[in-house]
Amino acid sequence: MMSKQNIKVAVGLSGGVDSAVAAWLLQQQGYEVIAIFMINWHDTTGVLEGDCPAEHDLILARLVARHLGIELHVADFSEEYSRRVVEYMFEGYRKGITPNPDVLCNREIKFDPFIRKAKELGALYFATGHYARRETLEIGGHIVHRLLAGVDTGKDQSYFLCQLSQQQLENVLFPVGELTKQQVREIAARIHLPVATRKDSQGICFVGKVDLPVFLQQKLKAKEGDIIEIPVSYRYPVLPEFNWENPDELMLQAYSSAIRYARSDGQVVGRHDGAHFFTIGQRKGLNVGGKPEPLFVLATDVNENIVYTGQGQQHPGLYRKGLFVSQEDVHWIREDLADRGHGYADYLVRIRYRQPLQKARLYFREKGIYIIFHEPQRGITPGQFAAWYAGDELLGSGVIS
Predict the structure, then answer these.
(1) For residue 393, which of 335, 348, 343, 328 has the smallest C-alpha distance?
(2) pTM for the whole structure
């Protein structure tokens, strides 16, 4: 059996504390560790000042590599990132949906070009600083890789990995997945890592924290339109009691569809620079004052260029009982558990990072999956990912229609 001293592992070193501790942990386990720093974005348009650009990250990554005594390789994947992640993002906003570039970044970059680069450098395994875990089992004579939530429920990042495949999980390691963030910080301080006290990065993966409208205006033109307020007293369609055991197609569609707003039901309260710059649940950027409670975006219509809003976080227009994922957008990590027939299964679901898992029933139909929640969910947003779990195992995900 090959000893760990003869096994090379490539760590994606980002300049942050998580990946730095991941590299050190692998060293302690006896692996031969090398590091790869990825450059995926060069343009600083819309990036907020002082948000630690790639140059700063690279300096820190070099300091960490020197501190740990490991080789650091720099790989530029900016062409793939622009084509496979950023263009997807622009196209999504153009269509009036809100894409999740961080999920796409993992699927399209960190676990694709990065893996190829790691193999070129002779690495058998590759590792990241994600707070997630992987477990490998043999089920029915087949090897199955399970993607599990990180031990630290407050930092669990399995959601961002919800589009990975069995092949992508085959040789990945998540060294910090068994630790809490506090433990990672304590290790970094104890071994005097240069990034021990560095704050976690925010914003778009590899781009940084951005002024989103300014960033999007690289490709999307500003277009002035109406902001319409829908009153809390708006008469929403009254739905029949949901039949959990045997809902028909029309009932599933009614419970999973977004509320439609009519222009005559609301009042124009302001103007905006483009409906495609807004997302459901958004509060900032509306610039409409004089209301008893702040306005939140309930829906957008990019064809008519209208932003529909409502007062207060409890506005009924912010809540939906279900959602739909088209069959072409359904992805199973556990392909052996995929149901493509007409059954249903009870799972735990989240529709955004760090959202507590919600009880839901998934109804499998030829057109796709209807997800009906036990409790109405706030801010279900087309373009984002719904991920379903069995306990702490992430089984699959899909783009919300």
Answers:
(1) 348
(2) 0.92
Active-site residue, selected from the candidate residues 64, 85, 104, 105:
105
Q: Active site includes 162?
A: no
Report how far residue 65's alpha carbon sits from residue 62's, in angstroms, rounded to the nearest whole number. Answer: 5
Catalytic residue among 36, 65, 204, 205: 205
Alpha-carbon span 143 to 133, nearest angstrom: 16
Residues 6 or more apart whose CB falls under 8 angstroms from that of 69 comprise none
Instruction: Please give the domain boundaries of the chain with CATH numbers for all domains.
Output: 4-129+175-214 (3.40.50.620), 221-247+256-314 (2.30.30.280)
> pLDDT tens digit string along 89-113?
999 999 999 999 889 888 998 899 9
Catalytic, 52? Answer no
Host H or E run for residue 145: strand 142-149
Pairing of strands 132-139, 32-39: unpaired
Helix (H, G, I), strand (E, B) or coil at 87: helix
